[in-house]
Amino acid sequence: MQQEIWFHKYRIIKLLGRGGTAEVYLAEHIKLNSYRAIKCISKNHPLYDLQLKEAHILKNLKHSCIPIIYDIEENEDCSYIVEQYLEGETLKEYIVRMGKLKEDIIVHFGILLCDLFVYLHSTTRPILYLDLKPENIIISEDTLKLIDFGSAIYRDEQSDIQTFMGTPGFAAPEIYGHSKVDDRSDVYGIGMLLYTMVTGATYQRGTFGRNHIDFTKGYSKKFKQCINQCLKYNPSQRYASVSALSKHLSVISRKKGVNLHEQSTLITYAIAGAQHRIGVTHFAFRLCSFYRDQKVRCLYHEKNNSHHIWAIQNRYQEVKRDCNAYRIEGITMQPKGLKQPAEKYQVIVQDYGCLTSENMDEFITADVKIVILGAKDWELAYSEQLLDKITGYKEIYYLFNFMSGKQFLQAMKHMDQKKCYRIPYEPDPYGKPDKGSDLELFLEITGLGREKKVHHRKRRYEEKTHVDEKGIRL
After folding, report:
1. Which residue in 110, 265, 441, 466 is a FRET match for 140, CA 20 to 30 A apart?
2. What's 23's domain CATH number?
3. Which residue in 419, 420, 449, 418 sits closest to 433, CA to CA?
4. 218: exposed, middle or buried (Cβ count in 10 Å: 0-12, 13-18, 19+)
5. Is the residue at 395 inside a domain?
6. 100-116 pLDDT, tens per residue?
7. What confidence tens digit (pLDDT) does each residue in 362-375 have?
């Protein structure tokens, strides 16, 4: 690998892999002290233009499930693509390691994929991925990352004689002919992934037996019907869009309900602020307190340089140690730099302090992302700068701290229908959020509020349809 002038920013650590079209190196950004993957593509390779097109597609995309492209450089012989380094395993490896996956996990992954594909299909120039398969998905800290956009096309660049690249057994049938492809081709791809996670096998049309979806036990009928509709040979019989599929999966998820006490997957919350001293740590402790009172195993993880945990534990006598963590006010707290076995917990709350370009890459990989903003005159500049950085990322909760209801309504006018909430005043970070808007905020963010609403509607229905001993409806 030739050392170019721009490489003074990076220290090459090792060769990660060598394929038919490129070499990939692990490198460290010297100033930022963070890892990058550098892909070196020879200009003499026949697929050079395809590889470069993939990089340019990715560079213009911003989504938590897509690796970040930081830079593209070139010399006379090669092009170098600097992108986010991903630690994890492919979905294929995950399925082999975990064995049979539970329905709630598969539905969760399906909803994440749908959110990503809705984004791809609704960009300024919509993109069709067309070759979704387990090898192209990296699972990193329970977050999905979609890689290898080599078969992706812009929806508007199709021609009547165009042929597409797709993996047999995973790509939609219309890809192998000269038929037009559209959003429903990616619906098929998502359905194929769901089928693979359920059965552990690839789909072969017309086969029945052990691996056929209808004979697979342990999954609801509605879920299997959903997968079957995705895999219809005729695109007109599939879901009309990924949005429609997402709504169906969300209904299945709500009906199934979420029991955090039995949940096998880890939920990570990332909390960060637009500036220092905006209330990030205070809110993180309150979220941990909420889960503590719900009897859910929760870990507070300090991801900033404040060293607040060291300061707190020095003020308490006989603080309990749990491996590399402290037990304070019923909350397990892990200082920065120490590691704690993640499998011990159902929820991890990560406190990033102030959100910056240095910790952004890690922040956006969390399952639930929360940003705390201020709206006072001296805080607006910080909030506006942060919103400019993260405006392309979806599914972020925006919380406003230290403001009245009137100030909150005024701030909402500039938030473009984002998920915004006002943090109710509560001086005790370890207190129990058990009333009014305070409790409602935590129920909404954790998703437990939806479960309560479903139960409440069911109870009201039972009360309305209750009959007495003579069969008369009361």
Report:
1. 441
2. 3.30.200.20
3. 449
4. exposed
5. yes
6. 888 988 998 999 999 99
7. 888 787 889 998 87
